[in-house]
Specification:
Elements: H1 4-16, H2 20-32, H3 34-37, H4 41-65, H5 67-91, H6 94-98, H7 104-112, H8 116-124, H9 132-163, H10 169-187
Helix pairs in contact: 1-8, 1-9, 2-9, 2-10, 4-7, 4-8, 4-9, 5-10
Keywords: Cell membrane, Membrane, Transmembrane, Transmembrane helix
Membrane topology: Multi-pass membrane protein
Main location: membrane
């Protein structure tokens, strides 16, 4: 996708869609507040950059030729998300008092394994046709804006829940959403 406006719109549409990474960003904003959750954005950026560049430059042709490998990767991502959801659920309201339930390593690995990276690498970022560096820089700028939005949304919801005494609900809602994404990845191939 070489047209800069179409590229930006496509990136915003995919990044803005709720998913495991965005759920974790919102959960972090809700549990530790806007400013303390900002340090997760570099972890998201690093995860996407590594995944997109690896897929776009090396693994894209291999995954296209080996559907079984793609299914295995999908199952690994689903299992990781279920494990992360379990940890997030178990932390419950304690995340509000003892610190972040979502750590940079959690966000990095989740983003590294996020299926959206495949969409970016194989469908949106124009590898091989134009200098990819400018598109990656544009991607990172858009990513920062969208991530700020998810953190702000989480902080607003977390503040409202905390004022009502429902702070324990926020990490559990995030855990439920992350588990849902994990189950979709695990069960999806079986339903085809």
């Amino acid at each position: 996708m070489e047209d800069p406006i179409l590229f930006a719109l496509a990136v915003l549409a995919v990044l803005g869609t709720p998913g495991p990474t965005n759920t974790l960003l919102a959960t972090a904003g809700a549990t530790v507040g806007f400013r303390r959750a900002l340090w997760l954005i570099p972890a998201e950026a690093a995860g996407y950059c590594i995944a997109i560049l690896t897929l776009g430059l090396m693994l894209g042709p291999v995954l296209a030729a080996a559907p079984l490998l793609a299914t295995g990767l999908r199952a690994a991502v689903g299992a990781w998300l279920l494990l992360l959801a379990f940890r997030l659920w178990r932390s419950g309201g304690a995340a509000l008092t003892r610190g972040a339930a979502v750590r940079p390593a959690h966000l990095f690995i989740t983003t590294l394994l996020n299926p959206k990276a495949i969409v970016f690498a194989l469908g949106i970022i124009p590898f091989g046709r134009v200098p990819v560096l400018l598109y990656m820089l544009g991607f990172l700028a858009l990513l920062a804006g969208v991530a700020l939005g998810w953190v702000a949304l989480g902080a607003a919801l977390g503040g409202a829940a905390g004022r009502r005494g429902w702070g324990w609900v926020v990490p559990r809602v995030g855990a439920t959403a992350v588990a849902g994404f994990g189950l979709l990845l695990l069960v999806g191939p079986l339903l085809r």
